[in-house]
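Researcher: Here's the sequence for the chain we discussed earlier.
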Amino acid sequence: MTTRNMVAVGLTLVSLGLLIPGLWQPALTIVASVPFGNKPMEIFRQTQNVVQAVRSLYESGNYFVSGLVLLFSIIVPFIKAAMLGVILATKAPGPRYRLYLFVRSLSKWAMADVFAVGVFIAFLASKATDNLDAIIGSGFYYFVGYCLLSNVAFQFLHVPVPETN
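Model: Thanks. This is the structure I predict for it:
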């Protein structure tokens, strides 16, 4: 295995180490309040992580959106990491390169980074309202760390184009 590919494997493992708490740690807390005298009175507080968001969407009848978040923010990242192992274990250059192209195209559909941006936009939108506040949790930072390292890891991966006769 080349040094580049060892770096790719190492970064993938670290990114998975960030993904796990990124899915389970609180990502965003939304707090709604109303003015009550000189002090705001909290009327709503909800903290969600990615897994809870999928569950909440499902339970509220948003099956399609729940399925999309589940697929692109949870399942695809694990498939992508598993496929990296398969690529590196495959010895035949043709199938190895085809798997590499498949994972590269799959990466375009991994929406973890889009999900992270969506959480950040929700955070910014709530900051623009007087009676609504948002607090970004540690899960958001873990998740963003996963997104960045996962993309960098795939950039390090080197699979040569097989020679044609």
